[in-house]
Known about the structure:
Blueprint: H1 13-40, H2 62-74, H3 82-105, H4 119-129, H5 141-155, H6 159-178, H7 186-200, H8 218-241, H9 247-265, E1 272-273, E2 276-277, H10 279-284, H11 286-299, E3 307-310, E4 313-317, H12 321-326, E5 331-336, E6 347-353, H13 361-374, E7 380-384, H14 390-401, H15 408-418, H16 426-433
Parallel strand pairs: 4-7, 5-6, 5-7
Antiparallel strand pairs: 1-2, 3-4
Helix pairs in contact: 1-3, 2-6, 3-5, 3-7, 5-6, 5-7, 8-9, 13-14, 14-15
Amino acid sequence: MNTPAAAAPTIPWQRGVAWLLFLGPFFFLSYGFANSMAARWQVSDSLVYDWERHIPFLPWTILPYWSIDLFYGLSFLLCRTALQVDRHALRLLTAQLVSVACFLAFPLRFSFSRPDADGLFGALFDALAGFDLPYNQAPSLHISLLVILWVRFAAATRGPLRGLVDAWAALIAVSVLTTYQHHFIDLPSGALVGLLCLWLWPDEGPTPFSAARWTHSPERRRLAAYYLGGALAAAGLGALLGGGGLVFLWLGIALALVALSYALLGPAGFQKRDGRHALGAALLLAPYTLGAWLNSRLWTRNSPAPGLIADGVWLGRLPDSRAMQTGGFRALLDLTAELPAPKGDWAYMQIPLLDLVPPDSARLEEAAAAIEALRQHGPVLVCCALGYSRSASAVAAWLLATGRASSVDAALAILQQARPRVVLGPHHRQALARISPPLESAGGA
């Protein structure tokens, strides 16, 4: 008897059309309002680098510039679920609201005179000038929307078509300069808004603020204050240096998001799923992620190899793919929230925990159960950034929960034989002391 083929998912186009009927008028009304207010205020301020005067005016690039309108409408047809439609629409709406608020808060004007254009290109420029005055500069709403739309189209295409999508998106990005619509500073600020929208409204799972609550943990508050101080210092340095120093603004934004995660969002702020961070989080946090990875390698440079604890359970730092293969590991338990995990043909589980914050007993029991489950696949590596604290407390919990250690001190002694630099403070010990009675073990003690 033949099994009927599963029905193809129905594209929720009606929901997308409903959103477009709202977003379209809202775009023109809000954008036009900001434009008219800047004209009324006779805004003349500009942020422009001297080198921008060498950017050529290319009339034909008005075609890719205008094409974003078509991409805007078609993007809703690429959403496969009602949740994707809503999250995509909320990204576009949020970008509009944030950009218009910035246009009103610090209005800027494009400072170059645009040369005349003839024929079709000239007609398209005339149509654009009918509603788009030389205001509404930073952040570039064109770039913010492009980031959001590119992600939607890139996820739905493969092979040569994906390459074409990427190339056309790059052409649209360049066109905001070569049509003399924006100065350079508008582009990175616009990209930032787009990435924030991706972070705020992920395609799947809860939003970062869905379970947000201010922490009562003194450790998390202290670390949040440190990261916030670092964010302000980096942002101040970037604003002071200008030019290439703007990279420090990126670092400041990354540290501010880390501070927000410690104070309010928890590990959800890193948006780590199946070992990888969501695109918005990955790009926004890239300077911090790089620093965290370099720090992990610096601290463990003299002891990079993991240590065998008991019965196929190893403890160490977050590995790369080569370390997983050469070590013969068949499973990986990843306790980092801040670092991406290697990909390979091994079993993988993650329990994202904030660095330098002792996990509570519930999370440790969850980790102990995960270790025991992963042991069914073969040797398992339990890791965090260094392999000294988060992962060590998880393995200690497993030793206690499976009866391989009779006390916290005994578990710590076992760990330190393999990893002498293991660090378990008073809060770790208190959480471990509350571990429930032994689990059913798949192997002997």
